Amino acid sequence: MRSGRGIDVSELSPLEQTALLSQYARTLDSRWPQPILGDPLAAEIVGQIDFDFDGLGVPKSVVCQSALRTKMLDERVRAFTSDNPDAVVVELGAGLDSGPFRVDVPPTVDWYSIDLPGVIALRRRLLPISRRAHSVIASVADHSWADGIPSQRPAMVIANGLFAFLSEPVIVAVFCRLTEHFRSGELAFNDYGRIGWFSRAAVKLAPQRMFATVGAQWGYPGFQDARVPEQWNPKLKLVEEASLTHAPEIELFPEWIRLATKVSGMFETSARKARILRYRF
């Protein structure tokens, strides 16, 4: 899928280009007869970009997991903002995600989408304008990423597919920075469990360009015990560990992916390979 008449994204860095992959996965889901996430803006955004999306070779299993983890994070944002209508939502590594327009949050909630300069420039060209939706140029590797975001309001901080691309010191610094800046709130993100050498090798050797793109940027092998972040920052308290393999939406997966997912969910180690973790502070 490449029109040659859309927005040129050739100047994006390799890390910034991972935002295109995530957006295309949401687009493919939106085209299914029974979508898992059903993002109404996904295809519209992708359709305005000049990029060989088909060449990424995004498999259906990745579409399923990407759509489901996004939906699960949406649900947690929706619940938090319902209880805290004066909240701020902070999406780290937001990419081109249309969360501020997809998730039905109270009109008093401000949504801050943080990402690198090239991605934010795309967001400002492609996404609708809203006085409650703010696109912020910042690298989460810099201590200043939270500057300018209200600190006294309850904060729902989310990250979707981000932490695998960061080093452990950067992740630890992010977790510490959020409790320094925000008075109270929650942190929710998707996690892959511990990624061993075999999985990393499989990603590098996979024929799809998508995996080559991801594998080249992979930065953190992950952890098995969901309480590890509590050791990094004692102000964080684990309140939820939810495996995607146990979500009811897996009934919408294509048959062979649905069966494989159910089998994975029967074993603790494999169930941890796709989960949402949520912490309160």
From TrEMBL:
Q: Which InterPro entries match?
A: Ppm1/Ppm2/Tcmp, SAM-dependent_MTases_sf, TcmP-like
Origin species, per record, is Mycobacterium rhizamassiliense
Listed GO MF terms: methyltransferase activity
Q: Does the keyword Transferase apply?
A: yes
- Which biological process terms from the Gene Ontology are attached to this UniProt entry? methylation
Which Pfam families does this chain map to?
LCM
The reply to whether Metal-binding figures as a keyword in the UniProt entry is no
Tell me what this protein is called: O-methyltransferase domain-containing protein
Q: What is the lineage of its organism?
A: Bacteria, Bacillati, Actinomycetota, Actinomycetes, Mycobacteriales
Keywords of the record, alphabetical order, are: Methyltransferase, Transferase
